[in-house]
């Protein structure tokens, strides 16, 4: 980090970059893999990482960012738990001349000079891929296709966008209807709890679309407890493709997974170095992703790293 009294303002005059990273939480397998990847990538890049876990609360993330500003880190990176309400703290970082990189989730700030770049997935596209699979699958369905949707945290970019992309895609078939949709906070426990309640209220449901694997895995427990067969009586589509999700897919309990890669660490460290070197970086860096059917999951599982 910057040596006090040396007059350097680039912050890396002792050769070592310090990054403050404000993580969302530890809500899912995706998040755990993402945290591990960022920590390993920082180490490999010789970047000193200060890391905090906000337990899915915006106020905790704002506190963490303020403490990184007070500690005069060289660069701040964070994955904003929700989209709104960041302008003030981002302005404080800007005033302190500490560059900010967004990872994984977007902010809705109008002033894009408040951050250098945003690296992460196209969540609308993920939702579309989920919906397109269902449209293709529903072609053979004799009757109505009644979907229960388990949403990620209200106000988060992946919840907003995965919902929007899916809604857009299923317009192609009027047989497909969303009969219930509720926040289950991206966790397995909530996925189970919310699915239990929604399935009781909507026994006509024959599809589950969960915004991540973990909620889908929790819902599978609720479906089995209700005496139904996940993947057969209720078709299941999820997003992420973490190991537990892929295992359930290979076992036939999930029908389709849209991949969302948590491995953003190396790209993040590269971008941080470029920003601190004063280089121009693209304002948006997209992650490359695929999708998995049950057969593809069986083939991919042995080499799956997370
Ligand atoms: O899909 C979910 C996690 O923001 C892409 O957050 C991330 C999402 C991921 O809790 O599992």
What's the short version?
40% of the residues lie in helices and 19% in strands. It is α/β, with parallel strands linked by helices. It starts with 17 loop residues before the first strand and ends in a 6-residue tail after the last helix.
Characterization of the model:
The chain is an alpha/beta fold. The protein is built from 10 helices and 12 strands. The strands form 2 sheets. It has a 6-stranded parallel β-sheet, sandwiched between helices. A 6-stranded mixed β-sheet has the order 7-6-8-9-10-12, sandwiched between helices. Helix 1 crosses helix 9 and helix 4 runs parallel beside helix 5. It is elongated and about 65 Å long. The two termini are 32 Å apart. The N terminus is likely disordered. Bound molecules: beta-D-fucofuranose. The site of beta-D-fucofuranose has 13 residues, from helix 1 and strand 9. Belongs to the bacterial solute-binding protein 2 family. Pfam families: Peripla_BP_4 (PF13407). It is found in: Cell envelope. Keywords: Signal. InterPro entries: Peripla_BP_I, SBP_2_dom.
């Amino acid at each position: 980090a910057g040596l006090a009294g040396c007059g350097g303002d680039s912050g890396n005059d002792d050769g070592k970059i310090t990054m403050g990273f404000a993580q969302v939480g530890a809500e899912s397998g995706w998040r755990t893999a993402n945290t591990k990847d960022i920590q390993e990538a920082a180490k490999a890049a010789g970047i000193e990482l200060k890391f905090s876990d906000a337990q899915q609360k915006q106020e905790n993330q704002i506190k963490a960012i303020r403490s990184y500003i007070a500690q005069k880190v060289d660069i701040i990176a964070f994955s904003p738990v929700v989209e709104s309400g960041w302008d003030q703290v981002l302005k404080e970082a800007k005033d302190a001349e500490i560059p900010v990189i967004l990872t994984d989730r977007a902010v809705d700030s109008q002033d894009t000079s408040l951050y250098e770049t945003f690296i992460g997935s196209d969540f609308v596209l993920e939702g579309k891929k989920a919906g397109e699979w269902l449209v293709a699958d529903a072609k053979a369905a004799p009757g109505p296709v009644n979907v229960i949707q388990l949403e990620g945290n209200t106000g988060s970019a992946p919840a907003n966008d995965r919902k929007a992309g899916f809604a857009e895609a299923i317009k192609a078939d009027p047989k497909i209807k969303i009969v219930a949709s509720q926040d289950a906070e991206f966790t397995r426990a909530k996925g189970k709890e919310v699915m239990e309640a929604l399935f009781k209220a909507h026994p006509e449901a024959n599809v589950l679309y969960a915004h991540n694997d973990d909620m889908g895995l929790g819902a599978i427990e609720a479906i089995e407890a209700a005496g139904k067969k996940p993947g057969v009586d209720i078709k299941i589509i999820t997003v992420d493709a973490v190991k537990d999700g892929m295992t359930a897919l290979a076992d036939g309990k999930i029908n389709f997974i849209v991949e969302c890669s948590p491995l953003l660490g190396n790209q993040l460290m590269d971008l941080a170095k470029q920003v601190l070197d004063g280089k121009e970086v693209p304002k948006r860096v997209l992650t490359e992703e695929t999708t998995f059917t049950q057969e593809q999951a069986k083939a991919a599982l042995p080499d799956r790293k997370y």
